[in-house]
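In this supplementary section we document a worked example of the pipeline. Step one takes a protein sequence of length 492 as its only input; no multiple sequence alignment statistics are reported here. Step two produces a three-dimensional model, which step three serialises into structure tokens for compact storage. The input and output of this example are shown verbatim.
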Amino acid sequence: MKIQSEVEHYILKNKPKDECGIFGISCDPEAASLTALGLHALQHRGQDSAGIVTSDKNNFFAHRGMGQVSEVFSDVSLFHTLKGEISIGHNRYGTTGESALKNVQPLFSELSIGGIAIAHNGNLTNTHHLKDQLIKSGSIFQSTSDTEVILHLLSTANGTLLERLTYALNSIRGAFSLLLMTKDSLIGVRDPFGIRPLVLGKYKNSYVLSSESCGLDIIGADLVRDIEPGELVIIKKNRIESFKPFKTTQLRPCLFEYIYFSRPDSILQGRNVYEVRKKIGEELATENSGDKNKIDIVVPIPDSGNASALGYSEKIQKPFEFGIIRNHYTGRTFIQDSTSIRHLSVKLKHNPNLSSFKNKNIALIDDSIVRGTTSIKIVEMLRNCGVKSIHMRIASPPVKFPCFYGIDTPTKEELLASKYSIEKIQNYIGVDSLSFITLNGVYRALGFKKGRNNESPAFTDHYFSGDYPVELIDQESGSFPSQLSLLIEAKK
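The serialised model returned by step three reads:
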């Protein structure tokens, strides 16, 4: 069935893209291997490229490449060359800068105070503004990544490493978690709003920094705490010092981390992501109290809809079924030459469990609707399976605004909910009914009984509310860097 074969193609194309994953460890003789394991656990945050940089206190060693961690680090002998007890690693999904080898992180630069490597999760919102100034003052950029701007700011600053970091961090705007590494120190930084996640762990006698706690779990490290918003930690000789280089801070983590991006087994700010998603499903059911009388089975769109669908199912007391089966062992869709064959190859990943649907009234649970193309294809697939009715329930509010903080979302004009009412979206995707959880419902699921405090929101939720906590300097000014000639690398 052609519709069936197209589902995964549209899911991959139309879902918001994850940001990046970062992982670092200090004072362990197997630092590189442990970092690779951490990156495996964070693979969901970026699949374009991966890299590791290590230090043995005298020299730096690096291996970076395009592809997933298992592809980049498939040769075990690589770890014999990645010497040292300090290591940082990065999984990239490029939200700023093209997918090319020159943008693979960690980036490295030799400064007057010594070598430094950097890995970055997030986006800067004043990249073009800063880059224009730096180029005019003589800086030469080798990549199109916003992360390189930070290295140039460190290079042009004066004083100690801490003084240079303070200068650079107060020059940039945006959402970011950073790992930096000198020859003998591991450094972690979280933006003043704590939009992008970063946690501190303990492994034997070593400290570990990771985007999510699942990166700690895979190596058997203990979660110590979240790095605080606007906090800078310097780990040296297994000692940790904490600094607050920013004038003001306010915890407003990214709400989409709980809805979609983070792994369900991660713990963010003391909350288990899986349990939050189940509670979102419960709230979704509460807001659609009449569903109990018209739904036969509850079906998630795997995998991000699973936990919310389970919570919804338990609340309305209707069976939960894996009606859409996902094959997790296929890797990338590799057939590209023929459109018809490419569509068939997509069937390797998702296919309906036909017996689950015939003559059933289905509640179809997904985490979000972005362009709507995914939903159309899935609904068509289910109609062809003989369903009686489809009631789509979405575990996030309508996505109306683009993100500039490290999530790759379409422009506002491409976001379905920015143009159409819920009724029109319902007709567009072809379901019998459509409902989104309210923003207050998401907040209640996170423990805020009164919902969102509009005067002082607890989370960064601009994609739903239009409330951007960090100024969008580049977007509002329309500034672009003066260096227009960029080397475009040939792609395999």
